[in-house]
Amino acid sequence: MKREDTVITCIACPNGCDIKVSFAEDGSIAKLEGYKCKNGITYATAEVTAPERILTSSVAVVGGEFKLASVKTSKPIPKGMMKDAVKALYSVKVNAPVKVGDVLVENILGTGADIVSTCVVEKV
Amino acid sequence: MDICIDKDLVIVGGGPAGLAAAITAKENGIDDIVIIERDKYAGGVLRQCIHDGFGLQMFGERLTGPEYAARYEEKAKELGIEIKLNTFVLDITGDKIVRTVSPDDGMVFYKAKAIVLAMGCREKSRPAIMLTGERPAGVYTAGLVQRLINIDGFVPGKEAVILGSGDIGLIMARRLTLEGVNVKAVYELMSYSSGLKRNIVQCLDDYGIPLYLDHTVVNIHGKDRVTGVTVAKVDEKKQPIPGTEEYVQCDMLVLSVGLIPENELSKGAGVELNPVTGGLFVDDNMSTNMDGVFACGNVVHVHDLVDFVTIESNNAGKCAADYIKGKKNEGEAIEVIPENGVRYVVPSTVHKNCDRKTADFMFRVGKVYKDARITVYDGDRLVRSFKKSILTPGEMEKIKLAQMDIDSASQLRIGIEE
Ligand SMILES: Cc1cc2nc3c(=O)[nH]c(=O)nc-3n(C[C@H](O)[C@H](O)[C@H](O)COP(=O)(O)OP(=O)(O)OC[C@H]3O[C@@H](n4cnc5c(N)ncnc54)[C@H](O)[C@@H]3O)c2cc1C
Ligand code: SF4
User: Fold this and answer.
1) Regarding beta strands B228-233 and B121-123, do their DSSP bridges make them parallel or antiparallel, or are they unpaired?
2) DSSP state, residue A91
C-alpha cells in the first residue's frame, strides 16, 4: 500500500538533517533526500521500517568508588522496548571494578544487544 | 605555615577543557603541571551526561559523556599529569598565586608561571529567573536532577513539569520518563527551542511529551512540597496573557533556563568579563587580559558540543606552553566586534601575520534567522560572507577566515544580514 511521504529528522549526529522519505506504490522506499552522509540513509530507513534507539542508563555497583556505573546498549534496540529495558536493569548489581566496555548484561530482553559499561568505577 | 609550591602551569578545573589543555601543554614540553578539581572525580559535567552524542568531531564515534571523559582522563594519567581532586580554588591573585583548600592537604598555595581557567559553567537557578509563588521543595535545576539520578541513583519525584527547552531539559525529560516519572510537558518562554533539533525528536517526540512554546510558569503551588504549577501563554513582550492560565499538577518543577560561565574566580582575579555573556574576553591564543592567564571551555562561552571545547582547549594548552617557554606573540592584534544580531564573538582580538592558514571564530546570534548571510566587514569593505539556511540562538556558529584576510584588515566586524 502507498504510504504518505514523510520528513524524518536524522538524530545520528548534531547536524539534525531533515530527510524527506518518498514511498513507492508498494510501500517501499522510493527516494531519500536531504541527508548529508550515509548514516542518514541508514537512520531514515530504519526509522520508517523499525525505529530503534541506543539506550543509555545506569546499573548499581557493589564495592566501588561510585554507586552507579553508566551503561549503553551495544547496538540500537527497538524504540518500544526502552522502558522495559530500563526496568530490567533495576535488578542488576555488578561488582567493582568496572571498566569502559565491560559487558554487564548479555542480550538484554532478547534484543541481541548487550549492556556495556561506559565508565570506570574503581574498587574501594 | 601554609605551603607554597612553584608550578609551571596550574589549571583550574578538571573537566574536558582542563584535561585537554593539560594534555596539550604536556605534549608541548611543559612537565610541571597540576590540575585542581573541586569534585571527587575528573571529567566535569560529562560524568553525569550519560547519554550519547559526544565525540563525533574528535573521534567519529557516538560516545557517551563518561566515555569521552575517560579517554582524556586516561591520556592524562598516561602522561603523568597530576590531578588534585576534592580541592577547591579559593582565589587567584595578580601575581598568579592560586590559593587552594582540600580536606586532605588543607590550605595550599601554588605560584604559577601560567594559569589556565577551565571552571566550566553553572545553571541559572530560580532567583536568576524571578519566579514568584511559594518556596516549597521540589524545584530543581535540570543539571541537579541529572546528577541526582545518574551519579547518586535517586529519582527526586513522580510527576514533573519542565520549564525551558534547553538541551539539558530535553535530555532530562527523556531520562525522567525512562525512570518512570510522568513528564507532563515542557514549557518554553521563547517562540523557539534553544535545544538541538535532534534532542526534541529523540527526547520529546519519541515519548509523546508536548512542548509548549511562548509559555511560562507564573506560579508555583505547595507548602512543603510542590503540588502543582500555574502556566500561561505569553505575548510578544514575553508577558503572561491574562485568562490563559492553566493549573498543572506535579511534584517537581525542573528548570532548564540556561547556563552562565562560572566566573566568580576570574572576577576576583581581575580578569575582564564579557557583560553580554558572563564569559571571558580572550584573544586568538585563548589569553585573557591578564598576562599569563589563559581560559578555555564553558568558562569562556557556553558550548553545545564538547568536541569544540576540546579543540579550543588544545589551543589554550599550546599557547600556555609557548608562553611559559617565553615565545610571545608580538604581532599586531586587531579587534573582532559583534554587530547586527551577533551577540558575541570568540576570540575578541586576533593577531596579524601569524604562522597559520586560517583562524576560527565562534559566536551566537540573538534570534532565529532563515536564509541569511554571516558577514565579515573591515570598515565598509566586505571581507567575506557565508550563506546560512538557518541560524538559531541555541546553536553556536563557527566560521573560518583565511589569515590573509586578517593580515589585511584593521578591524573585523561579524554580523548577520537578512
Ligand atoms: C547537561 C549537559 C548536557 C550536554 N550534552 C552534550 C552533548 O550531548 N554533546 C556534547 O558534545 N556536549 C554536551 N554538553 C556540553 C559539554 O558537556 C560541555 O560543553 C563540557 O563539559 C564543558 O567542559 P568544561 O571543561 O568547560 O566544563 P565542565 O565540564 O563544567 O568542567 C569544569 C570543571 O571545573 C571544576 N571547577 C569549577 N570551579 C572550580 C574551583 N573553584 N576549584 C576547582 N575546580 C573547579 C568543576 O568542578 C568542573 O569539574 C552538555 C553539557 C551539559 C551541562
Ligand atoms: S544525515 Fe549524516 S550529517 Fe545529517 S544528521 Fe544524519 S548523520 Fe548527521
Assistant:
1) unpaired
2) T
A36 CB less than 6 Å from ligand 2? yes
Q: Nearest bound ligand to CA B11?
A: 1
Neighbouring CB atoms inside 10 A of B1's CB total 4
A16, B198: Cβ pair inside 8 Å? yes
Percent of chain B beyond pLDDT 90?
83
Collapsing DSSP to helix, strand or coil, B369 comes out as: strand
Q: What is the pLDDT of residues B324-333, one digit of tens each?
A: 999 877 789 9
The answer to whether B210 touches B186, Cβ cutoff 8 Å, is yes
Res A78 pLDDT > 80:
yes
Nearest CA to ligand 2 atom 6: A40
Neighbours of B311 (CB within 10 A): 18
Predicted confidence (pLDDT) per residue in B82-112, tens digit: 999 999 999 999 899 999 999 999 999 999 9
Cell 538559531 -> residue: B392
Backbone angles phi, psi at B147, to 5 degrees: -70, -45
Measured distance between the N- and C-terminal CA atoms of chain B, rounded to whole angstroms = 63
User: Which residue of chain A is at minimal alpha-carbon distance from B69?
Assistant: A119
CATH number assigned to the domain with residue range A56-117, chosen from the 4 options 3.20.20.190, 3.50.50.60, 3.10.530.10, 2.60.40.10 = 3.10.530.10
Q: Which residues contact A56 (CB under 8 A, 6 or more apart)?
A: A70, A71, A72, A73, A118, B50, B51, B52, B64
In whole angstroms, give the CA distance from residue B314 to residue B321.
11
Beta-strand runs (E) in A3-102? 6-9, 18-23, 29-33, 52-53, 56-62, 68-73, 77-78, 93-95
Beta strands in B103-194 (DSSP E): 106-117, 121-123, 139-141, 159-163, 182-187
H or E stretch at B345: strand B342-346
Least trusted range by pLDDT, from A117-121, B124-128, B183-187, B305-309? B124-128
The amino acid that residue B204 corresponds to is L
Q: Give residue B287's pLDDT band: very low, low, confident or very high (50, 70, 90).
A: very high
Whether the per-residue pLDDT at B211 is higher than 80: the answer is: yes
Domains of chain B (ranges; CATH) run: 1-122+259-328 (3.50.50.60), 125-257 (3.50.50.60), 331-418 (no CATH)
Q: Looking at residue B393, what is its pLDDT?
A: 86
Q: Structural domain boundaries of chain A?
A: 6-49, 56-117
Q: What is the best residue among B36, B45, B144 to mutate for testing ligand 1's pocket, by most ligand atoms within 8 Å of CB?
A: B45
Mean of pLDDT values over B206-226: 94
Q: What local confidence, expressed as pLDDT, does residue B127 receive? A: 60
Other beta carbons within 10 Å of A34 = 15
